[in-house]
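Allow me, if you will, to draw on your knowledge of protein folds for a short while. I am sending you one protein, given as its amino acid sequence and as whole-number tokens for its backbone shapes. Kindly check, if you would, that the fold set down in the tokens agrees with what the sequence suggests. The record follows directly beneath this note:
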Amino acid sequence: MNYVRLRPLVSAIILTGCSSAAFAQLGTNLSVDVRSLALGNAVTADPPGISAVHFNPAALTKIEGLQTDLQGIVANFDIQREFSVPAGYNVFGYSDDPMVCNDGPEVAADLCTDFKGTVNGNVEYASLYVPGLKKMVDLGPGTPVAAPTAGIAYNPPGSKATFATAIYAPLIAGFGAENGNPGNYMGQQVALERITYLSPTMAYQVNDELSIGGGIGMSYQAIALKTDLRFPNELIGMLRMIDEVVCTPFKNNSDIITDILLLGMCNAQEGMNPFNKFGQMQLAVEQSLSPSYNLGVLWEPREDFSFGLVYQSAAKMRLKGKYYIENGNASQELIKGLMSSPTGQILAAILGFPSAVPAVESGLVSMDFEYPAHMQAGIKYKIMPDLQVNFDVGWTDYSAWDKFAFEFDRQISALKIAKLLSSDIGDTSLALPLVFKSPWNFGIGLEYSATDRLKLRAGYEPRTSSIPDGKRNTMVPINGAQLFGLGVGYRFDADTDLDLSIGFLRSRDSIPANTSSLANQTGVNNILLNPYAGLNVKTDTKITILGLNYRTRW
């Protein structure tokens, strides 16, 4: 794995924003089963084949003999990001941000005289994190993300028990852009994966109406990120003002008196600028074995009606990975300047600042992470002999994401400085408050039996956001979303079925300037993750999912 520039505190925070937003909307049932996708995931009372391992293990009792499922799902990400300047835009009196300002170096004004208007930072291609290689792979423009899955189930003759296991992906998403893309400050490449590679499950038919089931899922979890970094912030704007206004007369005429009075800050060869790129980082954390369990109940008192209930447990993990830091010149020069003055040294010692910011820092990082628990209930009802309606209600415990905690294996210079801004930061640790919500969601699906062999399906699932309004960002640009599904199922014979489905997820979001502490708020306490401070941000995300399932009884 090749590592590039980062500041570790920022890397941890960006990783947090990435993982939280992604799981909040992408982590639920988009890449598990194609029939479920077509029905808006309203299948708790009507789970499809071996995918019942995930949706409701109790429904495995509907399988007779030996059955196998082979499935392929591909997803295409079309993510558009827009940035614009509101009236009165400035960061501590500066507005010459080259991302939104056309002014060249010949214009000496601190306020921009010619804004660009709307600036686009669209995603350009799909990316994946490859576990064995421990690196992200660029799939190239127009290439979708693929998720092949498989499963096997067996119901012994005359037995009320059914046994099954499946390989599937509760979450697989990844995307990226080329160098220089304005959206790269919140992820040039992002990859998020949860792959269940073994899921031993058993279902038992209690009587003609009631079935129960349970299983254990053994999963691989990974989060990988490559991003540019910058910090447009009131505090850094003040440091630029000091460098340009206060220090200018002393740049070439400093002496011991001025060094003492000005704390040595004017000795820095490069000043802090809120609009400069501070570097780039690449980081990945993973856990090979992340166990969880599913429990389900299926009640079918009549042929035309059934009720299902499933509980999917949380999975608590300690994701581990590596970081590599190449600190930018501006931060190194700031500390170097303080150390050149006796008063600066005293101030740095009082504040607990490092005596120097090294060019390179590296080591290990770990992250406490919990894949949230989920509960869902649903009904299936045949309103006509050929027309069936499914309705589900679900709840996900995203409130478990009150804060994310990170630990580094050694003292980090950026943390030693940033700890002055928050009680959640230490020399080797960081806890990021998120205060996520636990939303209720519903889904509805229709299935029409056109013939004895052909079934037509449609579904709709509106997804309420778990992300607080003040935490929205462009890392994974999904707030509230809507999922639409269409599908067709064809039975070739008594033992062979083929399902084809297409799903479309759409999310639009507008983040007005100064409304999100993880995107665009100014202020002295928003120094760590606000690359678009003071700017209006809009996102338009479209995810298209296509799936094919081949089911055979032997």
Observations:
- The longest helix spans residues 8-26.
- Confidence is low (pLDDT under 50) at residues 1-27.
- The helical segments are 8-26, 34-38, 52-55, 234-246, 256-261, 329-339, 342-351, 413-418.
- The CA atoms of residues 219 and 289 lie 6 Å apart.
